[in-house]
Amino acid sequence: MEFHISRKARDLYQFDDSLFTLRGNVILPNFHAARVFAQKMNEKRDLVNFPEQAVKAGQINAMGLIDEILHYITGLYRDEKNPQVMKEALNWLYEKFGKQTVDDAVRQFAGEFPTVAIYRREIELNVYLEGETAGVPHRQIVLEEMLMLWLANLNPAFSSFIELFDDSNLERETSYSKMMGGLHTFFSTQPVFGPSYQNLVDMLRSPAITAPHSLTGQLEYIREKWGFMLGKYFYRLLSSLDLIKEEEIAELRRWAVWGRVPAPVYEYLGMLWYKLRNRL
């Protein structure tokens, strides 16, 4: 499973380079990798005094799987509806906001959420953006990654891990937010997709809208609504749900040993943050 991690978070947690794809996304091929990732984060947290801040492998695994499935659905859309859709989307944004404005946002994103080669300073940022991989220009690849980052930041269930993919600098310093909102308008001109015949952006957002504060709920939604489309991801999704349940059972057993049951934690700030960020 993969999802984007900021340069700042990589510097802080010193994640192993083996966990990253060439695009710079984290890839979690198994539960062990998710546990290693969670352990790296927990080493930087005061779990003696704040045990509730512990990062669980099941949460990391679920976020990675959701992000990877969103990439997969986007790939299906290209295959079935329009192979050139990201090229057309980029050109549409150029016409709407101006090439320099769009390229500035793309460049800042690629710097803050770098590929492995950029992070290691093996290639200059501008050189990377002028290149291509497997015939796909890197600017188109970056645009899709920007969309996934935007979706992650709009997902309230991801908010506890916002430090990994915080887009506040992009929002403040570029036209990133307007561009991402513009993509919704662009996809309104494209064929609908999925079982509910939706604008692609609406389809990608639907798990988070249906179960905004639950990673489990979002996985269940994807299983129920998109299961027939998922192929190999269907079984990985079931395994991810099992891991979360196992961790929940283990947590309840620990509390039972201590002789008390944890009180629920209500995330009022998270809800406020979601309402402020939910623009579409």
What is the helix content?
Answer: 55-70%
Secondary structure: number of strands: 4
Broad structural category: mainly alpha
Rg result: 19 Å
Count of structural domains: 1
Describe the strand arrangement of the main beta sheet, using strand numbers: 1-2
Percent in strands: under 5%
Which of globular, elongated, flat, extended, rod-shaped describes the shape? globular
Largest sheet: 2 strands, antiparallel
| Mean pLDDT level | 87
Stretches where pLDDT is under 50 for at least 5 consecutive residues are 266-276
Separation, N- and C-terminal Cα atoms: 27 Å
Query: Given the structure, what is the number of helices?
Result: 14
SSE order: EHEHHHHHHEEHHHHHHH
What tags apply to this protein structure?
280 residues, two-stranded antiparallel ribbon, mainly alpha, 14 helices, 62% helix, single chain, 4 strands, 4% strand
Account of the protein in words:
It is built from 14 helices and four strands. The chain is mainly alpha-helical and 280 residues long. The chain has one domain. The strands form two sheets. Strands 1-2 form a two-stranded antiparallel ribbon. It has a two-stranded antiparallel ribbon with strand order 3-4. Helix 4 crosses helix 10 and helix 5 packs across helix 8. The longest helix has 26 residues. It is globular. About 4% of the residues have low confidence.
Itemize the secondary structure elements and their pairings:
Layout: E1 2-4, H1 7-13, E2 25-27, H2 31-42, H3 57-80, H4 85-97, H5 99-112, H6 116-119, H7 125-129, E3 132-133, E4 136-137, H8 138-154, H9 168-173, H10 176-187, H11 200-210, H12 215-226, H13 233-258, H14 268-277
Antiparallel strand pairs: 1-2, 3-4
Helix pairs in contact: 2-3, 3-12, 3-13, 4-5, 4-10, 5-8, 12-13
